[in-house]
Amino acid sequence: MGKHLHWFRKDLRLADNPALSRAAKGDVLPVYLFDPSELAAMGAASKVWLFHSLHALNQSLDGQLRLLSGPSQTALPEFVAQNEITTVTWTRRYDPAGIEMDQALKATLQGNGVEVHSLNGSLLWEPWDAKKPDGTPYRVFTPFYKRGCQAAAPPRAPLPAPKLDLVKKPHDDLALLDQLLPDRDWHVDMMDGWNPGEAGARIALEAFIDGPLDGYKSDRDVPAANATSRLSPHLHFGEISPNQIWHAIAKQPTTHDTAHFKSELAWREFSYHLLYRHPDLDHKNLNDKFDAFPWRDDDAALQRWQRGQTGIPIVDAGMRELWQTGYMHNRVRMIVASFLIKNLLIHWREGLAWFHDTLVDADPANNAASWQWVAGSGADAAPYFRIFNPVTQARKFDAEATYITTYVPELAALPVKHRHAPWEAPAEIRKALQGYPEPLVDLKDSRARALAAFSSLP
Ligand SMILES: Cc1cc2nc3c(=O)[nH]c(=O)nc-3n(C[C@H](O)[C@H](O)[C@H](O)COP(=O)(O)OP(=O)(O)OC[C@H]3O[C@@H](n4cnc5c(N)ncnc54)[C@H](O)[C@@H]3O)c2cc1C
């Protein structure tokens, strides 16, 4: 018994939250803390999502979510002392800054005689458990998943939402949430079609199981098909746990689709495994051969990529989808990343930073592992010399140019067959292009330049 504080971070839900269930053994004070260093590091789109998600969480806590502000190392122990809290609970983090903060805070709180319980609520398997027989960490996905995960104990079954005896808060502090919103209102349209919060996450999972799960393995690569779960921001903010998703899928008849979807959840586990083992994953090449890579500094090209003005339709469609919706389809993420890194020779860290700022699902593990994967500098990465041709990719996965035309309406005036590579159309037809730019680079030449740069590595 006693007063228990649950510190919400990336676990913004009540159900299947082991640390919250542990807190529920006493009277509960649910807390979210705005740490200035964490706020400064958060992307703009993530902040907008967090704004909505915290409002939703507060509602499901009958308005009793307490918002604190200040460096966690001092603000939390002070609050704990002032409120005579005996136990603090939280869901573990696995990013280097989070681990460091939590270790220091745990020591302070325990030194003050407070019990601390940190539990796993965001991964199916602890990242340190999966080890090769020789004790070293996995660097290749398939053995990681097969031997490191599937051969281990199955993911724990989800817990129900606990009954909470909430300690009433003395005053309304919701105005603190407003600091998450930008001054200009670009975010309003971006959030169209998203439903942040635990209930929204559950609805998204149910809709996926009732719909696109059937056919997921083949259709997931088609950006216009709406054939994936779009659970990534919900998972990132912990509005739903991977265990809830895993077990909901496991209840369905086993098919290639269910197996494939589970393996995608395992890619997320693999990313966290890599981040845990390589805390500098977001800025240091896993393969240090790439440290000598002759990257180009080209701000003008970077800006055209960011704004979806490269003149390569599938790349521009992806970058505009990102800007408009805070999301980009996975196949297109790979295409735009490959274009930046290989056709433009711009460092993968620039792409990672832009995604970090603009994705609603920006995630320290998935983002860093994926950028290094595309660059070829990461673990189990696509080889550098495998350079996507964005036109071939677009013709294959967006044959009718439906996705392209949604985000690059300038191309709608062209016959479908010219929308993937408008510069190849006869001059007469190109007149209809309404200001759409010429390609930033020649795809063939820039491919050859990338291969030469790669060959120059020691
Ligand atoms: C350059 C690049 C950057 C990326 N950055 C991020 C990021 O910041 N945050 C993020 O969550 N994902 C990132 N991804 C991975 C992937 O694109 C997204 O997870 C996926 O598109 C999310 O859509 P969904 O939820 O509909 O996926 P679904 O296909 O429905 O998959 C279900 C879940 O599995 C996980 N998953 C799927 N694919 C991957 C993958 N390749 N790697 C790791 N986990 C995966 C995600 O948690 C996803 O929500 C990135 C991929 C690339 C190529």
From TrEMBL:
Gene Ontology molecular-function annotations: deoxyribodipyrimidine photo-lyase activity; DNA binding; FAD binding
Pfam assignment, any one: FAD_binding_7
Keyword Lyase: yes
Superkingdom in the source lineage: Bacteria
Residues under site feature: Electron transfer via tryptophanyl radical: 295, 348, 371
Gene3D superfamilies registered for this protein in UniProt: 1.25.40.80, DNA Cyclobutane Dipyrimidine Photolyase, subunit A, domain 3 (1.10.579.10), HUPs (3.40.50.620)
Entry cofactors: FAD; (6R)-5,10-methylene-5,6,7,8-tetrahydrofolate
EC number assigned by the record: 4.1.99.3
Residues the entry annotates as binding FAD: 216, 228-232, 261, 361-363
Keywords: Chromophore, FAD, Flavoprotein, Lyase
Domain Photolyase/cryptochrome alpha/beta: 2-124
Keyword field contains Lyase: yes
InterPro entries: Crypto/Photolyase_FAD-like_sf, Crypto/Photolyase_N_sf, Cryptochr/Photolyase_FAD-bd, Cryptochrome/DNA_photolyase_1, DNA_photolyase_1_CS_C, DNA_photolyase_N, Rossmann-like_a/b/a_fold
Catalysed reaction equations from the record: cyclobutadipyrimidine (in DNA) = 2 pyrimidine residues (in DNA)
Cofactor binding: number and manner: Binds 1 FAD per subunit.
GO term, biological process aspect, one: photoreactive repair
Family per similarity comment: Belongs to the DNA photolyase family.
Protein name as annotated: Deoxyribodipyrimidine photo-lyase
Protein's organism: Cognatishimia maritima
